[in-house]
Write a sequence for this structure.
């Protein structure tokens, strides 16, 4: 499995993790400028967007252990903030590299 992964990376294939921990995602978001207001972080904008959604989305944002790349809340918030699929892939790649 590792050899196959290494071969794909060497060939320039972007390997996007399908899930990251909530900590990893939050840490990655803190390191990026906002899409709507570059003076804020993307974390600030995502946090506000999820709080506006409320309900299950807010519960997931506060308590989920993992966040999936193709999850409904991720897709909805990304679309609302104008985050492209490529930028979302890059976010998950960055997040997966973060450890506590």
């Amino acid at each position: 499995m590792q050899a196959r992964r290494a071969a794909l990376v060497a060939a320039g294939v972007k390997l996007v993790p399908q899930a990251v921990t909530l900590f990893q995602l939050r840490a990655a978001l803190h390191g990026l400028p906002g899409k709507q207001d570059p003076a804020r972080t993307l974390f600030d904008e995502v946090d506000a967007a999820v709080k506006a959604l409320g309900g299950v989305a807010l519960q997931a944002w506060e308590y989920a252990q993992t966040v999936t790349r193709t999850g409904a809340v991720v897709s909805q918030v990304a679309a609302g903030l104008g985050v492209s699929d490529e930028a979302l892939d890059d976010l998950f790649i960055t997040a997966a590299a973060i450890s506590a």
User: Anything to note?
Assistant: The mean pLDDT is 91. The CA atoms of residues 71 and 96 lie 16 Å apart. Helices lie at 2-10, 22-30, 42-53, 55-63, 72-81, 85-96.
